[in-house]
Each structure stands twice: as structure tokens, then as C-alpha cells.
Amino acid sequence: MSTLPTPVRSAVVLLSGGLDSATCLAMASSQGYQIHSLSFRYGQRHQYELERAQGLADHYQVASHTVIDINLAAIGGSALTDPSIAVPKSNSVEEIGPHIPVTYVPARNTIFLAIAMGLAEARQALEIFIGVNALDYSGYPDCRPEFIRAFESMANLATKLFVEGHHTLRINTPLIQLSKAQIIAKGLELGVDYSLTLSCYDPGEGGRPCGHCDACLLRAKGFAECGQPDPALA
Description:
Blueprint: E1 10-14, H1 19-30, E2 34-41, H2 48-59, E3 64-69, H3 108-123, E4 127-129, H4 145-158, H5 160-163, E5 170-172, H6 180-189, H7 214-226
Parallel strand pairs: 1-2, 1-4, 2-3, 4-5
């Protein structure tokens, strides 16, 4: 059995244009990886996040930035892909319920990671970074550590590079056990310019955050706990 050449130390970074993925990108960059960022046009409510993702990719001078088109709106079942389903709005984090919200997109992280796995193999990258979070994560099942571990095990059985090449693919989730405040503090330590990011599920004209969706409330809580203003609101 032939052994494939050792890949360059590179990583695929899932980049949504939001706060968490920007922090992941900065962390991967600080560790010296050659970065291949990956974003998705998946039928989401707005395109502002893709503009932010491109801006972040340019800012960090990644080796490549790929945008993949997938029509998850054809599946439906989420307020992020079906405009007939309203995005939940609240006045405080305490009003966010414990149930899985309608902003959950069915199988989204499974699909995104599968494509990231393919890109990693094509680029001979041994690492994938994804900004999932199991604390301030609004109840999404595909942000849990057990999901990531299961996917990583599957990925190492599914591709030529990691079966025939005797390498191991690792899915890095550096934010998974951090609060939003801790994520922001880490990003600020690394010099992340959070004015380049957008977290809102339902922004207004020009990408102005609504201030009341779950993502906006969790982001505001994080900056408040850090004692820092959110530069995206300046």
C-alpha cells in the first residue's frame, strides 16, 4: 500500500462571518496554519454574513477562500432559510427558552463538515476548525461535543487521505466550552476586529443587527461581561 506525501501544515476553517468563526480563524492563524476558509451560500435569509466572511478572509490573507452553494431552503424547516417562519425576538437572554429554536437548520453542521472534510482532503489539510459552542449555543444539537467526536470518527473512515495516507483528520472546536464573554476576550487578545463580523439572524438594511434575536442577545451579553463595547454597533 502506497503512502501519500505528508501534507503541508494547513487547516480548513469554517467561516460564517460571525463572531465565533472569526475568533476560530484568528486562533488558527496565530498557530501558523496555512488557512483555507470555507463559507456557504445555503439559502439563508441574508447575504451580509457572506460579505463579512469575505472581508475576514481578505483581512487574514488566507491561502484560499471557497464559497459553496447549497440550497438548504429547499429542505426548509428553519427560520433562517424559510422567510415564512419568523425569527424569534426577545428583550433579554433570560427570555431565550431551553428548547431547540426554529433558527436551527436541519443537519446544517453535518452537511458543512462533510464538505469541509472533502476540501481538507483535496487541500491535504489535516485540521478543520469550526466555531461550535456548547454553552451559549441556543440549544443546537449539532454543536455538542459528542456530535463532533462522532463526526471526526466517521471522517477518518471515509476518505483516501486519512485511510490510505495513514494521517488523522482532527476537528478543532476551541470555543466549545467557552462562554461568549470568554470567546470575545480570547479574540480581543488575538487582535480580532469584531467590527468586521455579523452575528444577527435577521439584520436590517446594510446588515444592521436587529438587537433582539438570540444571536444578538448572546453577543451583547458577551461584550457586556467583558466590559467592552461592541464595535459592530459603533
